[in-house]
Task: structure prediction
Amino acid sequence: MSGVRVMVVDDHPMWREGVARDLAEAGHQVVASCGEGRQAIRVVAAARPDVVVLDLQLPDISGVEVIRGLRAAWPQVRVLMLSASGEQQGVLDAVKAGATGYLLKSAALAEFLAAVRRTAAGEPVFTPGLAGLVLGEYRRLAAVDEEAPTSADGAAPRLTERETEVLRLVAKGMSYKQIAARLGLAHRTVQNHVQNTLGKLQLHNRVELTRYAIERGLDD
Result:
C-alpha cells in the first residue's frame, strides 16, 4: 500500500516534523500535524486521515482520551501509537481504547514505515515483545468473558473452512502477506476472507478478531 493519508500527533515539534518528513519521502500524504490531543480531535474529521500516528504522552489530555475522541469524530480512522514508553498498562489501555498498533520510538525507520502501511490495512502491529503482552491480556479477558457474538437469529455465526483457517493464522499474529504465502492465496483474497469473517462475527477490526479467536482456542 502506498499513499496512506497520515496525521501526526506529538508535542515535540522537531520529532513531529521529522516523522512527517519521513512519511512524505516514503510517498505518504501527511494531511495534518498536531501538538495537542484536543487539537487532533478537532481537525481529524476535516483531515480525513487513514492513520493517526499518535504519541501516548501529550501535554493536554492522555493518549487514551485522544484515541477515543479520534474514533468518535472519525470512526474509520486507525491509530498507530508511537511512544517512548513501553510500559505495560499504557500499551493495554491504548489497545483497549481502540489503537490498532503500538510501536516504540526506538524502532527503525523501515519498521515504522511498514507499521504505517500495515495499520492502514487494518493489521495489528506491535513492537516485538508487546504482541505477547497484548495476546496474554486477551487470554485473561477470555477467562472472564465467554460470551460469543451471535447472528441475528441467535445462532452462532458459521464460518467456512477457509475462513476458519485464516482466522487461526490471524490469531497467531501473522500478517496478511504471511497468511497468503502459507495458504498459497492472493493477498487480496486473504483480506476478503478477513473482511467476510469480521462481518459474520459483528467485529470491527483485526484486534477484536484476534481476541475472538484466542477466546475459542484457535491460536493453539
